[in-house]
Amino acid sequence: MSSSQALGLQPGAAASAPPQLSAMAAVPAQPTGVRRAADVHALLGDPAPRFLIERAADAETLQAYYALRHQAFVEAQGLFAGSDRDDRDDDPRTVVLVARAQSGEVVGGVRLGPAVDGPDIGWWQGGRLVTASGAHRSAPHRDAPAHRAVPGARPTAGGHAVPGARPTAGGQADSGVAAAGGAAPGVGAALVRAAAAWAEASGVLRFEATVQTGTYRFFQRLGWETVRPVEVAGRPHVLMRWPIGRVQQLVAATKSELGELLQGVGPEGFVGDDGAPVPGSDLVAACDAIVPAMVERDPEWAGWCSVLVNVNDLAAMGATPVGLLDSVGARDGAFVARILSGLRRAAQAYGVPVLGGHTQFGVPAALSVTALGKAEEPVPGGGGRPGDAVRLTADLGGGWRPGYAGRQWDSTGHRSSEELQTMVKAVGRAKPKAAKDVSMAGVVGTLGMLAEASGCGAVLDVADVPKPADASMGDWLTCFPGFAMVTAGPQELEAGPAESRVCGRLTEGQGVSLRWPDGEITEVIPAGVTGMGAA
């Protein structure tokens, strides 16, 4: 179980106001910093938790946390002269979590936030972990210092500067240490768990801390992974990383069983493609079903998406759509009418006729659409080779579909018919070596499928991925993005309002890794996505 699950946070949920956290349970926000005992007892039972973890949301709470840090890092350890405050404390993206005793006293805290300046690319660091305890020394949780820092650069956890980042104050490492007071046992561990959960819920894909060699086992017991030894301020330390399995979990849930089920299906040379070329003709067929729960919950949107996903599938094959067939089931005619209204609007917007289909009443909501297109030379999903550039072409306009934040990006609902049709013609015009429409496996999972069908691995340069400003990197790389194509080869795509950018390479081997601005590479998919193998 991930920390986010244990603490009741949903990875990928909006991070603007996550619930408060305790060592055992979550409680709703209160109007004041001090919890009334009756409220806690009513929610969590008796006895109440010894402390609660919450975000520091006011100046008084932050000052209490800074005071604990000053007592530990400046007065007790002497790591800083005068103050341990630095630019990260002033960064509005920095999150401070504090532990508050039943009395309301702040008895510990930790900060976390983006590791580099500029847009948040999903790489965060934790630091300045401190607890108030007269007898217990908490495990250090450090930010790394600048060793070979460049002007205006913040060092990474490994001590290597990243251009555009800022060094910590004095180039010194963080350190947690006992401070006078009476914190309950377990505060330090709870803060570390809460920080990891907050990072995951904020769409972070890489979360690290640098700790002293004498305390790294504390982090190991909490589930952190040891990356490598590093040296901080002339002292031996260990770089630790919190395992975030968001991408791999999505791939396992959506694609991993296809290999056993679909062996031998499809024309020669096309394995796991978005559409199927009909042998002996220039026809390409595609078929997609919409999740029944979505049809029931949002029938008009489901109807729109049933056209969207099929037209995108044909577009990935370089095919021009010529017609649609729908299969609709619902409890009555009124519900079917709602589904078909969305389907017809989308068909009109994309300029594709609805040729016919099948309708059934008195059954649970269900919707699938088959699309037919034409292409003289269909673009395969498995035509890439090691060394080929990976390009993501995506429409960044629009926003999260209401009710589907972090999961469905609606980039198409506001576009004109001309804009939509320009985007879906991009692959057919450019004819890249390989192409796939980004589906429910997300950008990374779709890249993994293209690489697998091409007999390759892949590396994705996270900082180069075109991404909407309002989406976290974790959400963007694992959501359904409306219109987005992953292609391989030197060909550029002209897709109207969509942004197109090279953001990776196909490599020897298998699986998908993320490459970060400091040169670090983290594996997110260890092997093939579907198990269907190369085309």
Automatic annotation (TrEMBL):
Database matches in InterPro entries: Acyl_CoA_acyltransferase, GNAT_dom, MSMEG_0567/sll0787_C, PurM-like_C_dom, PurM-like_C_sf, PurM-like_N, PurM-like_N_sf, ThiL-like
Superkingdom classification of source: Bacteria
Protein known as: GNAT family N-acetyltransferase
Residue ranges with Low complexity bias: 169-180
Ranges for region Disordered: 137-180
Domain N-acetyltransferase: 52-245
Pfam families per record: AIRS, AIRS_C
